[in-house]
Design brief:
Helix content: 55-70%
Radius of gyration: 23 Å
Structural class: mainly alpha
Number of strands: 0
Distance between the termini: 77 Å
Length: 376
């Protein structure tokens, strides 16, 4: 069933019996899209993991990805029909489909899409709708992070981005005055798969100076600091990687929390990740590898020239072993796990670049030591 036709029929029908039929058709069509996608496996439509791990991408028969304009009809549905009629179930599915854009939509729909995302992350919205909206925002993080006052897109302004920032925090903590003790409840203070998606988004935004200021003001950096101990205690490598990257971006002037001891632990955590999780290069690691490389580079930069030689040597060894593991598993990852070629290439290129740079750093260090040795 054509989801576009089903949604348009629903939006253009006022008679209640007909609306109920079109609503069911629309949801069936949208659910068919999200459970298949461009995925390695079939997903269950009501599974919480679909929100966080679903491979929500599609392509045409010629292999080309849909343009932003091809999603305009669905943004209209979320912004108008679902928002005005309160169709929470179908709205959550529609948001997951929209996350496939990996952006904020076409220029004519961008503002209405951002406003819909803000509404969907409100504290009164159902958990599934809030989380689907958070996934959509996180998947659009590269475009959002690129927005500055000097390059503000049409119909977008600083006030709208301020509202988006506040809404993102609400999506993960809808009620600040309530503490959820159930560790399996999606609104608990630390919920790994939700907070990993959140930390991935904040890491991308924190490297933009204007967003950094916004994140500090709205309490995001303080929240990320509060997640650090939990990530380290449970050895959750993916969220730990992003939190480590965020900590590099936190300045003492941000007045977040005392950072030095935690920063040191996070640096060690990143080093250990290369010898542990990234050494095996599983299919679930591939998409995170370029970000792990970026975080590693940020921490190396923070050391200046003071990194101990033994730590640098150990890190270089582990990165090189991860590179060899990635090269060995290329065929397996592509054939059996259907890792997209572009995703694999991005991971391989980033690790190769880090491996080359670490080798040069070691050689430069050895050269410097020989020059400083009066007996040489």
């Amino acid at each position: 069933m054509d989801s576009r036709n089903a949604c348009k029929q629903l939006m253009n029908t006022q008679q209640e019996d007909a609306r109920q039929k079109h609503k069911a058709d629309a949801r069936t069509a949208l659910r068919t899209m999200i459970v298949y996608g461009d995925s390695r496996w079939f997903s269950l439509p009501d599974d919480e993991n679909l929100i966080w791990h679903g491979d929500l991408r599609w392509c045409h028969n010629d292999g080309l990805m849909p343009s932003f304009e091809e999603f305009d009809w669905l943004i209209d549905y979320v912004a108008d029909e679902a928002g005005n009629r309160g169709d929470d179930e179908t709205e959550g599915d529609a948001l997951l489909v929209l996350s496939a854009m990996r952006g904020l939509g076409s220029p004519t729909k961008r503002r209405s899409y951002i406003m819909a995302l803000i509404r969907c992350m409100g504290p009164s919205r159902p958990q599934r709708v809030r989380h689907a909206a958070l996934r959509a925002v996180s998947d659009a993080r590269e475009e959002i992070a690129s927005i500055t006052i000097g390059s503000m897109p049409e119909a977008v302004d600083a006030r709208l981005l301020d509202e988006l920032s506040c809404a993102v925090l609400t999506a993960v903590r809808p009620h600040y005055d309530q503490t959820v003790e159930d560790g399996n409840h999606p609104d608990v203070s630390f919920y790994y798969i939700r907070d990993c998606c959140y930390a991935r988004l904040i890491f991308a935004l924190a490297m933009n100076d204007e967003w950094h200021e916004r994140l500090t003001r709205d309490g995001h950096l303080e929240r990320c600091a509060s997640l650090a101990d939990k990530a380290l205690a449970h050895w959750r490598w993916e969220i730990g990687c992003y939190i480590a990257g965020i900590f590099v971006c936190i300045n003492p002037s941000d007045n977040v929390l005392p950072l030095s001891p935690t920063q040191e632990r996070l640096r060690t955590f990143i080093w250990d990740t290369w010898s542990d999780e990234l050494a095996s290069m599983s299919c679930s690691s591939i998409a995170v590898v370029p970000d792990a490389v970026t975080v590693t580079r940020l921490h190396l930069r923070g050391w200046d020239d003071s990194i101990p030689n033994d730590e640098l040597t150990d890190l270089a060894r582990d990165v090189h072993e991860a590179l060899e593991s990635l090269q060995r598993k290329q065929d397996i990852l592509a054939t059996f796990y259907l890792v997209p070629q572009a995703e694999f290439d991005a991971a391989l290129s980033s690790v190769q670049g880090l491996d080359d740079d670490l080798r040069r750093m070691i050689e430069n260090s050895k050269t410097s030591q020989r020059d400083d040795d009066p007996g040489s």
